[in-house]
Amino acid sequence: MRQGMNTQRSLAMALLLVLFAAGCSAPLRMRSFSHPEADYSFYERVGILPFQSEADDRLAGEKVSEFFLTEILIRGPLQVMDPGQFRAVLSETVGVPNPAILED
Known about the structure:
Layout: H1 2-23, E1 45-46, H2 60-75, E2 79-80, H3 83-94
C-alpha cells in the first residue's frame, strides 16, 4: 500500500516537473519578416536565386535556399518557379548571357 502511494507521488512530481519545464520555454517567434503594410497581391509566381556562402560548409548556400523556399511556401499564395524555368526566363528578360552561372 505504501509503495503505491510512493509511485503516485513520484508520478505527480514528474508531471509537475514536465509542466514547469514546458512553461519555461521561449515564446514562439513570428515567421513573417515583411512590412505589415506591404502589398504582394501583384505577385503570383516567384523565382529563387541560389544563395552562395563563404562558410566552411560547402552546402550552406543550398541549405539556405531550401529554407527560403520552405518559408515562401508556408507563406501561402505564391507559386515558386522551377529553377530551370526561372533561369530561362531570367536569361530572356534580363539578358544573363549564361544562365548556368546561376547554378550552385
